[in-house]
Automatic annotation (TrEMBL):
Membrane topology: Multi-pass membrane protein
InterPro entries listed in its UniProt record: MetI-like (IPR000515), MetI-like_sf (IPR035906)
Cellular component GO terms, alphabetical: plasma membrane
Gene Ontology biological process: transmembrane transport
Cellular compartment(s): Cell membrane
Protein name stated in the entry: ABC-type spermidine/putrescine transport system permease subunit I
SUPFAM superfamilies: MetI-like
Biological source species: Mycoplana dimorpha
Amino acid sequence: MTAAAEGSPPLALGRRRRSSLLQTEPAQGFALISPTFLYALVLLVVPILVVVAHSFWTQNYLTIDRSFTLENYRVALTEPIYRDLLMRSLWISLLVSFFTVVMAYPIAYFISFHGGQHKGLWLFLITIPFWTSYLLRVMSWRVILGYNGVLNSGLMGLGFISEPSTALLYNTSAVVITLTHAWAAFAILPIFVSLEKVDRSLIEAATDLGDGPLRRFLRITLPLSSPGVIAALLIVMIPTVGDFVTPRLVGGKDGVMIANAIQAQFSKAANWPLGAALSVTTMVIVTAMAAAAVLIIRSAARLAR
């Protein structure tokens, strides 16, 4: 009895400590995010690890040789066809990101600063085109850019052309135009949220100190909204590199991107290790580009201040 009585206080103290640790904010926060973390781990990290593992193997007809090799990466980085496709994809992604943000920023600025009580309505109207299928919107741009004679009929009726033409189709420009429209709303929303957080009193103070509209924008509004610009760039840049539907439908031979080559390796060519190496190479390069873009924008924002 004496030993039990002497041992019970430390045991009770240990239980109280464990209970207090479980009630702390970090523990409660971890318990809250742990299901989401496990979900992301299973559905995101594990497939990426499988792809990385495949990139170091080789395929002999229908069998996978699991012997370690870097041959797939040599082919992905040195073969002209894959190197050119990767460079073209990165260039298209940069163009789409730039044009999308340049077009999205004025719209987000207008809604944030001049939308008044109708901000929700403006945002609602922006999302209307996205009620339809992505594939349907791509096919619509294929029609607009001249396929099947819709644009050509109008131009022929006005006397500008004498016969149908597909000059606006099957090239890099068609891919850039279609992707810019497809991702416009995804750029407008984060920029709008960032602009909503800009303290209006800072702009009023700059006005009182004699700054003009352009100077106020460059020194206050644009630097403070840079997080939204960065988010928009990342949201647009990363998915567009991996798009293979749009290049296939409106790009033609001149608009083919690296994702089309990867898709071919997993279907027609049936060389999964090479397709995995192309995927990993693209992911690494895009990650490096995104990090460089973030650093450049943040440095520019600090200099502007």
